[in-house]
Amino acid sequence: MNMNDSPTAPTASKVIAFAPGRCDRQKAHRAQQAHHACRDETLPIAENICTVRSNDWINPEYKHLVLSAPATALTAVAGQFFHIACPPGADEAAYLRRPMSIYRVEPDDERIEFLYKVQGVGTRGLARLAPRDTLDALGPLGQGFRLPAVAPGEQAHVLLLARGVGLATMAPLAQEAIRSGARVTAILSARSASLVMSADYLRESGADVLVVTDDEQTSDVVQIERMIRRVHAAQAITFATTCGSNRLLSTLQRLTAEFGIPGEIALEQHMGCAIGACYACVRPFRKHSGSDELTYRRVCWDGPVFDLQETTSW
Ligand SMILES: Cc1cc2nc3c(=O)[nH]c(=O)nc-3n(C[C@H](O)[C@H](O)[C@H](O)COP(=O)(O)OP(=O)(O)OC[C@H]3O[C@@H](n4cnc5c(N)ncnc54)[C@H](O)[C@@H]3O)c2cc1C
Ligand code: FES
User: Fold this and answer.
1) How far is the CA of 142 from the centre of ligand 2 (A)?
2) Band of the pLDDT at 292, cuts 50, 70, 90?
3) How far, in Å, CA of 112 to CA of 55, rounded?
4) Is pLDDT of 47 > 50?
5) Same domain, 137 and 285
6) Locate the FAD-binding FR-type domain: which residues (predicted)?
7) What's the 138 CA to ligand 2 centre distance in angstroms?
8) In testing the pocket of ligand 1, which one of 81, 170, 270 has its CB within 8 Å of the most ligand atoms?
9) Are residues 202 and 106 part of one domain?
């Protein structure tokens, strides 16, 4: 951990040139979906040396990390992540970097933010960061969400279904969707009301926010399904996203198939390199929607955001 003179001390990045091949699914996806906002194939990935502005607890389990970041880091889009070199803890150190989704990017303020659950050696090290410390964040990495275009004159309606820390991944998508003129409905699920994060931030961004909790016994899949059906009946959902949870995945797969709309999921997987080289993060996927044939993809490089119907449960 290094110290700098001020929380907004100059940041630096060492750019690693990257233009590797994509998996077949992505080449096909990109060819078929020319209406999607495609990113340039030459990816600006860098070892970004960021400076901590703040690193505060927002509830008993989660911290919010705000960093001054160099220009390369500020190109991150919703669904992408950084591979973070976590500083050592009191008497332990994480050998590998840890992947963290981008929670917020504010290029005008040269700022990126993360929301993380303090749970193991890496995040316990992150939790020790103080203003003016520096942090090495490799990225931005992976494929972000691809908001489908809607017909002229129609308004997109994006559903975000997030539980726990999955919210960190979905929050910037809400911002991007609202900026593009979409309506956003966010269903936030948590064990208890005190662990619901970012409801205010999402509301301020313009999203309709619905909260369900285990404590209030409103977070079971039957009630969530009823809620989604009500939301869809009020204004047709045009794109649905979720993350992390198997039971939310299968509910949303079923409903999006019934509604005839596209969807995506952001997956979490333990990672080694996070740049597509070691194959530690490979998972099985359906070759295409409805197919019984499986194919194998790297979560770090081909994802972490994948087509909802191609994703297999775990
Ligand atoms: C793309 C992506 C984005 C992510 N974004 C965020 C985010 O925004 N915020 C956030 O809080 N987390 C996020 N995560 C999850 C985070 O990277 C992991 O939880 C990370 O392991 C935490 O590191 P740690 O050292 O604190 O905990 P670890 O020591 O890695 O332990 C975390 C948990 O994983 C279990 N575990 C450890 N190794 C394995 C293994 N090989 N197989 C199965 N289980 C294992 C441990 O028992 C423990 O329960 C993301 C993960 C991915 C892949
Ligand atoms: S973590 Fe190395 S290929 Fe994905």
Assistant:
1) 11
2) confident
3) 12
4) yes
5) yes
6) 45-147
7) 13
8) 270
9) no
CA–CA separation, 59 and 81 (whole Å): 23
Write out pLDDT tens, residues 160-173: 998 877 877 888 99
Q: What is the pLDDT of residue 308?
A: 96
In this structure, which ligand is nearest to the CA of 166? Answer: 1
Which atom of ligand 2 sits closest to the CA of residue 272?
1
Q: Is 105 in the pocket of ligand 1 (CB under 6 A)?
A: no
The number of distinct structural domains making up the chain is 2
Residues spanned by the domain of 187:
157-261
CA of 274 to the centre of ligand 2 (A): 4
In this structure, the answer to whether residues 1 and 52 fall within a common structural domain is yes
Contact 33, 148 (CB under 8 A): yes
Q: Is 208 in the pocket of ligand 1 (CB under 6 A)?
A: no
**pLDDT for residue 253 is more than 80:** yes
Task: Indicate which ligand has the atom closest to the C-alpha of 115.
Answer: 1
Percentage of residues in the chain having pLDDT higher than 90: 64
CB 228 within 8 A of CB 187: yes
Are 86 and 213 part of one and the same domain? no
Distance in Å, CA 301 to ligand 2 centroid: 7
- Establish if 149 belongs to a structural domain: no
pLDDT digits (tens, 9 = 90+) for 115-157: 999 999 999 999 999 999 999 999 999 999 999 988 888 899 9
Peptide bond into 304 cis (omega under 30): yes
Task: Give domain status of residue 135, yes or no.
Answer: yes
φ and ψ at residue 311, rounded to 5 degrees: -80, 135
Q: pTM for this structure?
A: 0.88
170 & 247 share domain: yes
Within-domain flag for 129 = yes
272 ligand 2 Cβ < 6 A: yes
DSSP per residue, 74-129: GG--TT-EEEEEPPP-SS---SS-EEEE--EEEGGGTEEEEEEE--SHHHHHHTT-
